[in-house]
Amino acid sequence: MTTAPTIAAAGRHPAARSAAGSTQHWPFMRTDDLYALPTGLPVPVDDGACDHLRQAMLPTVQLRATSGAAVDISQEGNPWLVIYCYPRMGRPEQEPPGGLLAWNAIPGARGCTPQSCAYRDHYSELTRLGTTVYGLSTQDTEYQAEAAQRLHLPYPLLSDAALQFSGRLRLPTFTVPGFELIKRLTLIARAGRIEEVFYPVFPSDADAGRVVEWLAAHSSERRT
Fold it and tell me: Following DSSP, what letter does each residue of 34-58 receive, concatenated?
């Protein structure tokens, strides 16, 4: 029988890294490093679940953003639009669904915080390439807002809690006790049409850099 990792005792107030040079303190803390990927994670395989997405049109769906706006994804882009879909952002004071060991054993599940931080760190490059960035998950806006503030994200997170966006595009999902979650994937769109899909995304913290490389190459192609 597997036991869940213990949580740090009250009174120790361990520090959580939210951005370069900043920390937050919690009375209880996961014993793992939420901001880094552990070694030995299972590698997800491409099961073909996103093969239908290239050249598909984005659906007209209004999604709540952590910025407070209602966003119609089909109208976004400057001219590029990047939507990285992630399963579920963790919190320093909470165990993931089913416990840490069970969560880490799901291929591709671990790494939402490192992925989001990488997009934060590459944000200036992305904007220079004319890119609008959103993170998207099935978590509600209130939950996402905590992460956006703690991680100092310069872009909004979108809530697809009703599975409207993921359902219309038939995005691959998986279930854990109490939740239906989107498998990690990244969409790159222009003028409402999906031009590239990265799936599966692994490791998660390399996704933003890969997207920057793709956008730089394809932006150059359009100028020539």
Answer: TTSPPTTPPPP---STTTT-TTPBP
